[in-house]
Predict the 3D structure of the following.
Amino acid sequence: MQEFPNYIDGEWCMSAVTRPNINPSDIRDVIGQAANADAADLDRAVAAARQAAPGWAASTPQQRFDVLDAIGSEILARKQELGTLLSREEGKTLVEGIGEVARAGQIFKFFAGEALRMSGEKLASVRPGVEVEIQREPLGVVGLITPWNFPIAIPAWKSAPALCFGNSVVLKGAEAVPGSSWALADIIARSGLPKGVFNLVNGEGADVGARLVAHPDVDAISFTGSVVTGRQIAQVCAGQMKKVQLEMGGKNPMVVLDDADLDLAVDACINGAFFSTGQRCTASSRLIVTEGIYPDFVERMVTALSQLKVGPALDPQTQIGPAIDQAQLEKDLHYLAVAQQEGARLLCGGERLSLEPAGFYLSPALLAETDNAMRINREEVFGPVATLIKVQDYEAALAAANDTEFGLSAGICTRSLKYASDFRRRVRAGMVMVNLPTAGVDYHVPFGGTKGSSYGSREQGRYAAEFYSSVKTAYIQP
């Protein structure tokens, strides 16, 4: 059985306590045993990162490029192997798993290039004979806390810019998917990065994650996860005057107007709401449809959903894999029950499926006769569950889309340039999709939302510099 140890100060080390890594497509399949770090493990990782930070901060752009490019190259060369491991432990289809691994490799390649494009400014002062130079500097030790739903892409899009801008890293990966973060650390360990610059600790969020956030030798925290945990992290970091970046989910709307291309709209909603088992913070869980197109749209959605194949992640015929674990499956079922108690009508799906091999399977569910007052439309479910909200016209659709405490991604399907342009301007979301699924973003552009979805600087692309570096202004009189 494979082991997934911690990686601390350039050494692999198992913890005294381990936890099994269970395949959600086949609960009899124990993929391996993962280290379950304790406080001492975390403290050693932070100490190693602190000691290594000055040396890496002083590294040259070429050194950083070489390391990041080597990491990206190996990830891409092994995408089939690593995608299989990812899908086996997380449950997304093999096509999606391989695609996620490829994205992780592309992210490292992108930031390898950014290491060579590090720029500053030189300005004339308002005072005669004085020059002004502005440059970016690393923060020091950055703590990264990542979720289970993108177990290699999100660690990549946090680790790559952190290293690119000269920081040392302590990564606390999600305990449900230790294999992917271990595989990433294994590649990083052979990239030529000095020891101590990158460290991996596996462990419980409430224990190891909380200690990482509060550790006085950690200069910044980047977190992706739940709203409740994100708010707690923000309070701790504010108390320590520590830089913080939070991504905390969404309740994303997809508006379908009467003039939409119906085939395109159905495809976009099926993809956005149900692919990756709906376990994406950008999933379109609220389908807001104007009344003229509503009957035809609903009929086509029900037909399309009934034809989706739910099954094991590694089966090439599978389109929807299992929930990540029993707790998530029970959460999905709970929200479906609450929605029906509040008056929603289940049109299709929503059943736990008994498949062979046994796993955490749920048929994709579509709920009608819902409104924004219902819990199903206020709270993030994080499963293959979408609701229908029927509205009269575009203005009512826009109002419904904005009626949420979240603001990550929003979409609209329409042939009208007028409505598409107005929606892009007035919807309160950090990312807007026109005639595209709400889920699915490029790796070289900023990612993030508004309101309760995000806090702090944007992730990904060149905008990552805003979080992973600080600006220093120098005045010089020759």
Q: What stands out?
A: The mean pLDDT is 97.
